[in-house]
Design brief:
Order of helices and strands: HHHH
Number of strands: 0
Structural class: mainly alpha
Helix content: 55-70%
Number of helices: 4
């Protein structure tokens, strides 16, 4: 069995919220919301971590309301759209 990293301040908190965002975007909100809660309770003074935990909650709310497709990997505010476009010759 592999033991996870204990949730602590950056950079470990970043691993948690990135994983939580990935889960939320794949509509795996049960686990994603647990991660969001853990981040908010454990590293509450990290504004970026808390903001990303809130985004997990927002995504899962949209999933619950049927506003997002089952799997969504769209560009977000964190990733500029230009970074996801295919360069033209």
């Amino acid at each position: 069995m592999v033991e996870g990293l204990p949730l602590s301040y950056w950079p470990v908190s970043e691993y948690y919220y990135i994983y939580g965002l990935a889960l939320a975007r794949q509509s795996q909100c049960g686990e994603a919301l647990l991660i969001a809660r853990a981040v908010m309770e454990t590293v509450a003074i990290e504004e970026v971590s808390v903001a990303n935990a809130q985004e997990i909650i927002n995504i899962c709310q949209q999933v619950a309301e049927g506003e997002l497709p089952e799997s969504t990997m769209e560009a977000t505010a964190e990733v500029p759209a230009a970074a996801t476009e295919t360069p033209q010759p």
